[in-house]
Amino acid sequence: MREYNYKKIDAFISGKSLGNPAACIYLENSKTLSHDEMLTIAKQHKGFVSEVVYCSNSQQSGLNLIYYSSECEVDFCGHGTIACMYSLIKSSSTLLEKSEIIINTNKKGTLTVYNKIPEQDAVFITAPEPTFFELKISIEEIADSLEVDTDKILSRYPIDLINAGLTTLIIPIVDLSCLINVLPNEQNLKKFCFDNEIDIILIFSTEVNDNKNIAHTRVFAPKFGYLEDPATGSGNSAFGYYMLKNSIWKGEDVSIEQGGSDIEYNIVKLAIQNHKIIFGGAGTDRIIGKYYL
C-alpha cells in the first residue's frame, strides 16, 4: 500500500464563506501516479471537492500541478492552484520569503505565483493567455440552456466565449435577483456544454450585494461532474478579460463576489501585473492527513 501526504483546502474564502474545496495530493520523493490512478482518486472525491490537484517537483520550475475532476483531467483549475499554493507557501518559511514562485501546469505551461500573504493574506496566479472565440450560439439556445427567458439576458453587454484556462461562455444577466436565482437542469446544461465545446458557463451582473465588489458572478461546470462551482479562478480570469474588452474594468485592483442564493458569497480578487491579469484569494486547510492507495 502506498501513502501520500494529503490536504483538503477551501479556496477563495471570505469571512464565514465556505470557499471552493480542493483536495491536494503531494507526489513527493519521486512518487508517481498513472492517469487511471489519478482519475480513480478524483472519482472517489465526487461530491466532496470540486477538483483534485496533484502536486510534484518539476525540473522546469520547482513545482508541477495536474488537475482532475471526477469526470476527466482538467486543463487548468484556478481554485485548486490557489488552494495548493496558499497552503504550501503559508506552511513553509522558505516559500513565505519569496515574492514570486514559478509553477508548471500540465496543460497550460509555466505560470507565476505572486505571494501577497504578508500584505493581503492572498496568493495570486497569472491567468493563462486568453483566446477569444467567435460565438455561434443563438441567444435563444443560451436562454433555453439556463432555463431563463431571453429578456433576462442583458442586451447592454455582449455574450462572449473566452478561454483563460477553460473555455468560458460569459452571459450578462439583467439584475442580481435574477442572477442568484438561476437554476438550470444539470444534465441538459451538460449536453449543451459538450455540444458547443464549452468548459464552463459564467453568468454575471454588475449589480452587487456589496459595493466593494465590481461584479457578481456564478459559474456552472456540469462537464466536470457538478452543476455549480462556488468560486472560480479561470472563469473569473476570462471574465476579467471580458470586463477589459467591454470597459467595465480599467485594470485597477478589484474583487468579485461569487455564488447563488442563500449563501455567504466567496471573493475572487483580480489585478494586472506585467500587463497580464492575475487572480487571487486566500485558503483554509480543513483536513490534513494521508491518502492510502
TrEMBL record:
Q: Which SUPFAM superfamilies match?
A: Diaminopimelate epimerase-like
Q: What is this protein called?
A: PhzF family phenazine biosynthesis isomerase
The protein's matches in PANTHER family, at most eight in alphabetical order, are given as:
PHENAZINE BIOSYNTHESIS PROTEIN
Q: Per its UniProt record, what InterPro entries does this chain match?
A: Phenazine_PhzF-like
Q: Which Pfam families match?
A: PhzC-PhzF
Please provide, alphabetically and separated by semicolons, the GO molecular function terms listed in this UniProt record. Answer: isomerase activity
Q: Which GO terms describe its cellular component?
A: cytoplasm
Entry keywords, A to Z: Isomerase
Domain of life the protein comes from: Bacteria
The scientific name of the source species is Alkalibaculum sporogenes
Entry annotation: catalytic residues: E51
Give the transmembrane region(s).
none
